[in-house]
Amino acid sequence: MVAVKNLFHSKDLSDKQFLDEVICLKKVNHHNIVRFLGYCADTEGEIMEIEGKHRIVEVQKRLLCFEYVPNGNLHHYIKEKTHGYEWNVRYKIIQGICQGLHYIHQERINHLDLKPANVLLGANMEPKITDFGVSRCISEEQGTMVTKIFFGTLGYIAPEFIDKQQISFKSDIFSLGVIIINLLSGHNGCIPEKWHESIDAPCPQMKRCIEIAQRCVDTDPHKRPTAGEIIDYLKETEIIIEKDLPTIDEPPRKKKPIYEPRNDPGSSLHQVVQRFRALPILTLREHSRVDTVFAELIVPECLLEGSKKPGRVPFQLLQCITENFSEKREIGQTRFGRLFRGLMRQRSVAVMRLLMTIGFNDKMFQNQIKTMMLTQHKNIVQFLGYCSNTEETVTEHLGELVMADIRERLLCFEYLSNGSLDRYVSDASCGLEWRLRYQIIKGICDGLHYLHGNHIVHMDLNSTNILLDDNMVPKIADFCLPRVFAECQKTTLIRKKIGTRYIAPEYFLSDGVVSYKIDIYSLGIVITEILTGKKKRFANDLLLESWKKGLLHTSSADLILLEQVRVCAEISRACTAYDPDKRPDTGRIIEMLLETETDGAGAQGNLLYMEFNELECILKGAKKPGILSHQLLSLITGKFSRQQEIGRSEFAVTYRVMFL
């Protein structure tokens, strides 16, 4: 995914200023700086009325292309009153901003507009500095500069710039100090009077950040530390904390953990819940101790890293990370159970609490776990762990209170931020750009091919069971009732009929006979939805005509894309054939898709198609940022459609592009 920033045409934006910004952006390459991918400086003839007459005027088009950063900007998280982050996350944000600022100062770049709105947050809440629109490159000989132009944002501008129009690296340090105060106090923009007196500083890191912020906002720029010195100050507290921790040879200090093994007589669910209820609300204004509490949890490595083998997860832990399965943590429901988002050490996981339906026994649950442990593919939702827990509780039975065992079964998966595919299906006139739709179709086919290759039939493939990650990569989900075929089997018989309206007709007409071709039928309906926004059959000529309107006629690359649309339409029709024997298998479907890619790229080889490949290489880090055509940026943003707009300021509009 990429972000395209379309700068407004303005007299204030000179060629030199745009060139300076591009030079600054091309110089920087750091994990705490938003990655620059390319730029466009073009002109287009537009008809305008000037002095009562219509004239053709050359209008400058200036655009910048960056990596897409999914969690928005820091300004939102500072002013948010009901949701926030524990001190550990805020400290990492402060640390990351300091590292990014230290890097650009080493590159002799003065940002001059550092503020929370210009700090974006990545998938793991890592900060990335952006917007170098007013930045200046300072030579080795220069220390302080004087400028007649006023820029920056009130509340973050250093006093010497307001009084004497002087700018230096210490101007950025002042802005950094205000940001740190914002993160500590929960205020945006201005510095509250006696702000440090109102903050309870329970840990050395927080105390050190208060001291740093006070020095950064000193009215005398010479008394402010450099970004490098600030990083050293922060490291000192980390060393102190590490020294304070017990060594391998030293026995750990006795401290009551929030989660204890069940065989410990002192352990109870009540104690766990009460300890979490005692914590303050997680906001940026209140300095919670959740990081300390989570550090005490016995957390399975599979949940933290996602790379370990899935394993058993304690029920108490799942209660804690979902706030006792609260409504505000609920993210959806399926016919198998309720879904919750669990937060743990800056990582999100999805927790499915299965419905305790009659007939769903231990053997079925064990088979389900074994099946999910077999699957590991980029287009399959990653299974992280499971829980089977029995609690003895008092319940009413036939008018009397009795003791009963309550069984809970839960599953843990990776959390996918963009939700399910059904939220994005639409016709050709709006919604996702074709290249992204094609990549989604291809990814679903790859995932289903993997399942069938492992003798697994999904039996409930539909657009709500296909989830999308940060990069809109599709992942097949919901394996609550899969059927695992023996290697020699091609069909099997099941007694209880399951599935949705996506299910093949033979399933209802042949007493529950199941084969891989049932999934192929469901795949055909999903592809139809992606092409048209509907589940019904369509006329090929009408479909192609609607897609022609959405593609540029001037580029031969459109012929390639239109051919992909045609082939996908052909695949969807073949998949939904009434006779299951006439449906293609996943291997043949993938071959058909690959043929359109090979023929198109080799035969057409046009500039626009090459530009797409160029941008993809830049995004992957294989090439350096370069010039991008206005035609390309117009195409991938849907001609700068408002539907793809993600931000607007007085200087520019930013669009999100989901096509790679």
UniProtKB/TrEMBL annotation:
<keyword id="KW-0418">Kinase</keyword>
<feature type="domain" description="Protein kinase">
    <location>
        <begin position="325"/>
        <end position="594"/>
    </location>
</feature>
<feature type="domain" description="Protein kinase">
    <location>
        <begin position="1"/>
        <end position="240"/>
    </location>
</feature>
<dbReference type="GO" id="GO:0005524">
    <property type="term" value="F:ATP binding"/>
</dbReference>
<dbReference type="InterPro" id="IPR011009">
    <property type="entry name" value="Kinase-like_dom_sf"/>
</dbReference>
<keyword id="KW-0723">Serine/threonine-protein kinase</keyword>
<dbReference type="Pfam" id="PF07714">
    <property type="entry name" value="PK_Tyr_Ser-Thr"/>
</dbReference>
<dbReference type="InterPro" id="IPR000719">
    <property type="entry name" value="Prot_kinase_dom"/>
</dbReference>
<keyword id="KW-0547">Nucleotide-binding</keyword>
<dbReference type="Pfam" id="PF00069">
    <property type="entry name" value="Pkinase"/>
</dbReference>
<protein>
    <recommendedName>
        <fullName>non-specific serine/threonine protein kinase</fullName>
        <ecNumber>2.7.11.1</ecNumber>
    </recommendedName>
</protein>
<keyword id="KW-0808">Transferase</keyword>
<keyword id="KW-0067">ATP-binding</keyword>
<dbReference type="GO" id="GO:0004674">
    <property type="term" value="F:protein serine/threonine kinase activity"/>
</dbReference>
<dbReference type="InterPro" id="IPR001245">
    <property type="entry name" value="Ser-Thr/Tyr_kinase_cat_dom"/>
</dbReference>
<dbReference type="InterPro" id="IPR008271">
    <property type="entry name" value="Ser/Thr_kinase_AS"/>
</dbReference>
